[in-house]
Amino acid sequence: MHGFYRWSAKWWPGLIPLAILWVVAAWVSTIPLETDLTARSTAALKNTILDKSQITVAGRDVSFSAEAFSEDGRRSAVSSVEATPGVRLVNDETRLVAEAKPFVWVAERDNVRVTLWGTAPLPASRARIVEAARAALSGTEVSDRMGLKRGAPPRFDAAAVLLLDQVAKLKEGKAVISDTNVSLSGMARDLGGREAIAAALKNLPEGFTVAANDIKAPPYVFQANKDPVTNTLTLSGYVPDNNVHAALASAAGRKFGNEKIVDNLKASIGAPGGFAAAVTTALGALSRLSTGTLVVSDREVKLSGDALYEVAADQIRASLARELPQGWQAKAEVSVKPAAAPVDASVCQQLFAQNLTKGRIRFEPSSASINVDSAGLLDRLVEIAMRCPNVRVEIAGHTDGDGDAAFNQSLSEKRALAVEEYLVKAGLPADRFSTIGYGSTQPIATNDTDEGKLQNRRIEFVVRQAP
Amino acid sequence: MTYLAMFHWGWLLGAFLIGFGMGWIAVVYRGRSVSRVWIQRLSVIAAVIVGIAIAKVVPGRFGYWLDLGLALFGFYLVGCAIGSWLRDIVVVRQQTRVT
């Protein structure tokens, strides 16, 4: 031991080359060591969920800054770096991701792109949302400007993905999640888009509520054009379904007995409430015009054209506004057709007969109330009567053979009177008309068939030269 | 420590060989010795430096260089001890053969 002590007293000269070795080793090994430790520390964090993670190594000391999404995650990340072989110290500069209050997320669509704003709760959520946006809006540029923050409501991802599907149905607009409140605004791409979005919002994840749904849809348009030159009624635009389509086609057939109907209607959802009733009323008004156009756009009915006479124009304007369902607006731009040239008694009779052959004045069953569908035909009869002011006209009522003869007699008289009343209300002098009822005594067809009975139930105008 | 030994094995081997050579020479070296008092003082200083290294007081690269220096110094001492011990055995054998 004594020798060992003696020798060690002479070991000092070796310290000089050792010091040189130390300097060289420090010079050469520092950078590779730091690079190696950076790689190992980064690898140790591979399975942790962090934002803005940054690792800087000086010697064997690691400065680790990151934003974690939970306290457990933060501690676990720091421990992983600390446990990396070779690391001496960890300067912990980690912190928790800021909490957003309220937690707001926005998907905004314009003509060119979809921009995602606001915050997502986790990088994985963010990636899922961006992927869902690309899938839902294929062909549209997706711009991701989302940040990451804590404080998202449960099932946030599912809500965001569902809203992206709705944004895909918009032409432009935005969907916003603010905590658990969902609001949408903008213009739907297609007719019915608004309804489709409203239906989809019912499937929002539990806990989310629709705070506002201000989606607008392109106007729901129905058009009808009455052209007296070609004698056609052209229907175009949309109807809600096949049942309404059939009902409107049937109503048009009854109201426009003289015209050929060209039906270009298409079915689409998105019709405003009361559509069928409003269009039926408006078609009734159009049927009284000589020439005219009807445009129904959402809840606005615009009727323009020429009435056959002054009183009809007033009646059409007033009745259209009155008879439309509540919430609907009427704009009637009805002028009066210039009076047609007068005709003599024989032409007058011919015109009456022509019109009453093509169309029939309809009454409510077993009643003398004139059916509204006959207004157009009656207006034409009024116009003809105006063209021959010097003739007297006998209005004759007939019934079919069904029922009691006395009742039929009375009914035919009342119906003839009702027609006379219509003509007088139109401004024609009452003394030009006389009425007579024939009951079922003058059938023109058999009363054994429905078709025959239909022909027998009729009103005839018989022209008599004024004395 | 295992990581350091693996990463720096070449440098540590170098320190050991320098130590081994120095230890080998020291047995028959006639030069000046360090006095007992100085050896004690230097031992205390070395112990303090080891303490500082263990306490991880020196930050960053300087801390690493301190650890590296101490590791090299340790291997140097081990090399010296083994070198001196082996040389002593050789010298004793030679003396025995002469006598």
SSE topology sketch:
The complex is a heterodimer of chains A (467) and B (99).
Chain A: H1 2-8, H2 15-44, E1 50-58, E2 61-68, H3 71-82, E3 89-92, E4 95-96, E5 104-109, E6 113-120, H4 123-136, E7 141-144, E8 147-148, H5 156-167, E9 170-178, E10 181-188, H6 193-200, E11 209-216, E12 221-227, E13 232-239, H7 242-255, E14 260-267, H8 275-287, E15 289-297, E16 300-307, H9 310-323, E17 329-336, H10 345-358, H11 375-387, E18 391-398, H12 405-425, E19 433-437, H13 450-456, E20 458-465
Parallel strand pairs in A: 2-3, 2-4, 6-7, 6-8, 10-11, 13-14, 16-17, 18-19
Antiparallel strand pairs in A: 1-2, 5-6, 5-9, 9-10, 12-13, 12-15, 15-16, 18-20
Helix pairs in contact in A: 2-3, 4-5, 7-8, 8-9, 10-11
Chain B: H1 2-7, H2 9-26, H3 36-55, H4 60-98
Q: Quickly give the CATH architecture of the largest domain in chain A.
A: 2-Layer Sandwich
Any low-confidence stretches of chain B, pLDDT <50, length ≥5? none
Task: Let me know the average pLDDT of chain B.
Answer: 88
Number of domains of chain B: 1
- Residue windows where pLDDT falls under 50 for at least 5 positions of chain A: none
Q: Class by helix and strand content of chain A?
A: alpha/beta
In this structure, how is the largest beta sheet of chain A organized?
A: 7 strands, mixed
Beta-strand content of chain B: under 5%
Number of strand segments of chain A: 20
Verbal overview:
The complex is a heterodimer of chains A (467) and B (99). Chain A is of the alpha/beta class and 467 residues long. Chain A has four domains: 2-96, hypothetical protein tt1634, CATH 3.40.1520; 104-216, hypothetical protein tt1634, CATH 3.40.1520.20; 221-336, hypothetical protein tt1634 (3-Layer(aba) Sandwich), CATH 3.40.1520.20; 345-465, OmpA-like domain (60s Ribosomal Protein L30, Chain: A, 2-Layer Sandwich). In chain A, 38% of the residues lie in helices and 29% in strands. Chain A has helices at 2-8, 15-44, 71-82, 123-136, 156-167, 193-200, 242-255, 275-287, 310-323, 345-358, 375-387, 405-425, 450-456, and strands at residues 50-58, 61-68, 89-92, 95-96, 104-109, 113-120, 141-144, 147-148, 170-178, 181-188, 209-216, 221-227, 232-239, 260-267, 289-297, 300-307, 329-336, 391-398, 433-437, 458-465. In chain A, the strands form four sheets. In chain A, strands 5, 6, 7, 8, 9, 10 and 11 form a seven-stranded mixed sheet that branches. Chain A has a six-stranded mixed sheet with strand order 14-13-12-15-16-17, covered by helices on one side. In chain A, helix 9 (310-323) links the parallel strand 16 (300-307) and strand 17. In chain A, helix 7 (242-255) packs parallel to helix 8 (275-287). The model of chain A has no long low-confidence stretch (mean pLDDT 90). Chain B has one domain. Chain B is built from four helices and no strands. With 99 residues, chain B is mainly alpha-helical. In chain B, helix 2 packs parallel to helix 4. Classes of the chains: A alpha/beta (467), B mainly alpha (99). Chain A binds chain B through residues 3-4, 6-15, 17-18, 21-22, 25-26, 29-30, 33, 36, 58-61, 85-86, 88-89, and chain B through 2-4, 7-8, 11, 14-15, 18-19, 21-23, 25-27, 29, 31, 33-36, 39, 56, 59-65, 67-69, 72-73, 76-77, 80-81, 84-85, 88.
